[in-house]
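Quick note —
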Amino acid sequence: MMNLKLELIFKDRVGIVADISTIIAQQGDNIVSMEVVRREDRAHVYLETENQGQEVRIEEIFENLANIADLIQIRSIDTLPQEERENRFRVVLDNISDGVVSIDREGNVTTINRVARQALDYGDRSVVGSAVRALNLPDFQVLECLEGKKFSNVKKDLITATGRYHYFSTGRPIRDTKGRIIGAVEIARDMQEIKKLARSISDPVKIGFSDIIGRHPAIEAAVGFARKIAGADTVVSIRGGSGTGKELFARAIHSAAKLQGPFVPINCAALPAQLLESELYGYVSGAFTGGRREGKAGLFEVAREGTVFLDEIGEMPSGSQAKILRVIQEKQVRRI
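Predicted structure written out below.
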């Protein structure tokens, strides 16, 4: 059996498809697929034929097709436009993190992407053309979409030989240009992926040096110096007027240092003097009336293995500044 793929370019007119079909039939070949694309006054016909075993020379096929009126050019091609579209579509589906299964109006699988195949334990085996009821799905709710129904974010569990999967499933009917239902699709999103996405949104945004925008030599020099000291285990003093970006630099240094602990900013001017030390150093059980029975960790302890940013430290009482200086020098803290 021999397959031949061709592109034929005609001056656009009525009857081109009929003329091609007649010649192919006279040769005893089958037409596997045919696509016509109109571009201005040209008709580009993409054709794939299948020979059933007769010895037909390619030159003879070209000669027969060349007799069709208004033919401008004919050539062999390796890939049909439809194949290229399907390949691009398949690459996109196989590289998304959601599982996708689509069916036709008879309930047979038309598309199943890599994530869905792996979850269902099919590996690289193709199940396209199989009845969707033959798949190892927890239910076949997608078949209800063939009746026009929809479902969104339905929690489902899938148990296979490789383990249990928890996911949210959404199903929609597929309609043609006239609104008729010609199939349905079910999209499954792993609950773990949703949780990771939620955490990434809720977690504090990491600031890096790339977030500091400026072309002035002073800014560039400050960024360059901050990059150099970011990896040093030391105390950094950042001076500047209000609103000049001191905390931005502090966060960038913390991110570049790749510390295991958190970044803890403390607005020293905003803490009442009577609460300042208990917030900074914490307190043990029974330290004072109204405190937590189990005690409380101070912000220095919270920032362990990370960074403490003392903002507006000059607004603190001098006695409190002296105690903080001692903590910085000794690198030790004791709860009240």
